[in-house]
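Pasting as-is:
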Amino acid sequence: MATTESDSVKQVREKIIQLAKEIEEHSRSNMPPDAFFNEFLKRVVGAVGARAGAVWLRNGTAKLNLFADVNLKQTGFFDKPEATALNQKLLDEVLSNGQACTHSPNDGSGVQVPTNDLIVLAALQQSKQCVGVVQIFQRVDTPQQARPGFLQFVEQMCGYACRYLDRQAAPKATPETKAKITEQFEQFLLQLHRGLDIDEVTSTAANDGRLLLGCDRLAVAVQYGKKTVIKAISGQDAVHQRANLVKRMGELANKVILMREPLTYNGKLDHLPPQITAPLADYIQESGSRMVTIWPLFESEPLLKPDDKGVKKLDKEKKPIGGLIIEQISESQPRPGLQEKIESLADHVAEAMYNSQTYHRLFLLPVWRFLGKTFQFMEGRGKLKVLAGVLGVAALIAALCIVPWDYRVEGEGRLMPMLQTNMFAPWDGTVAEIFVKGGDKVEVGTPLVRLRNEELDGQLLAARNLVAEKVQLKYSLQAEYEEAKNQGNKVEINRIEGKIASTEVEIRGAKKQAENLQKRMDLLKVLATKAGTIATFEVERQLLHRPVRRGELLLEIKDESGPWWLQLEIDGHRMGHLLRAKDDQKEPLPVEYVLATNPEDRYEGTLREIETTTNAAVSKDRAVVRVRVDINKEELADRRRIGAEVTAKIVCGKRSLGYVLFGDVVEFVQRYFWL
């Protein structure tokens, strides 16, 4: 039983909604007033289940006249002489305040009604002026709790009738006006469909669309999945997504777009779904708008193609892609013709937005656009330019692959004399005195450095003291020997002779030890063993008062009068080219080098030897192999400087010009990206 009642209530609600939609459609039509109000009354009376209905309008006078009615005679209205006067008072009251109201014989208000029915009254306005009244005669036994619902429904339907009256009162467009409107609309469509950028499309729709609709503000929302983003608002260059107004607008638009039905707010929230009421109230409070219409936009219908059997495939439900938010700040009722304009505008905006989104979904779109511009350039004489360019590139590639060129391995190093003598510390000690400085010319035997060894000094002093002590002991024994000899004591003589012999042996040993220590002391004074030039820089700063160990390098002496060579460092990863060229050529590899102090002149040399081990570079964190290059010192004349920096290139045979120019890139790829 409960299920049957629920189905019945649902059917009644659907019927009322359908009648309301029909009234809304008629309000947008060009029906004559008598036909419109007859159809209007039939549907209002049928929707609320009333006994009768009437429409009272002014016909150029201050008095209201009956314009249309449904079953008014059945209420007994015309049978009572006083009914017209009583009814006129009720109509005048509604005209004076514009407020809808209800009256009944038993409501206790003291207001007399023309019939024994529940009277529902609502004003009709044209251009914001009350021009008529809609009167509904409902059964008097209607429950008290149902009366507010009847009043709200009648008042809402009167809003559609007011819209119809406004459209009727609007001046008819002249051919010139129509042509101007058509031209404006064409210009709008031209701007709207000119580009495929979503920002440009939405900005054009918001700013130019507002002028066409005649509203106070127009915003465009774009749907990304379940998220709604306000892309453009009329009159604003940019949309600040964190602004409270934009946040509230996005939340409201999201709810309406997901419902897939247009929403119009004109001052009342009672008829709206519950999920819309809260976000709409928040937005109205933030924006202050009196009329808000949100119109969902859907993707375009795909072009249907017949399948193999010639049968068209079924349509899928269109996906929402955004929405239009139309607002009026000063008026709660939509302006005349706004609904029709929105319907015309929405389809074009949706089409432009859908085309833009479809275009930007293309995979690798920047690549295709670049290729398109490239092929576009090839039209006309561009083909000859492209062909010439292709031939030029092909010729360049062929030259890089075919033309031979000297492949040279570059290295950095120093200019050094070939003959070099290193002076080492002969014993442990401290550098006490330095006799030379960097760059001095020295000969064989020239004093260089004197060391001091405190321990050796002590040992030498102890050895000398021991010699003196033993010599003194010998003198004492000799005196004793003379005394014993004078006494003729043979036993004492023999004993003293033994001691003297033993002392003489000790004296010779002590003297020998002192001589050895003195030789070691003499060696602490380092003398030049070869003639040449002191190559050590800032000798005093590096050595003076510094403790050194035996065998530690003190000074370098280089013979500038002898042959010279280059000591180079070659990166380890380039040694393959160098070794192959050395094996392939029987003669020494030619070398070209420049001095850092004289880069404008170039000199030549030949590769002498290559070290067999890899070393760490002195100044850089890299592996290098040291090589030596023979040079002609006479070419350098007075430009020879010990340790002068040089940059050299070793010729390693012929390779293609392309490899000479881009070999580093090839080797880098081979070294770091090999599989």
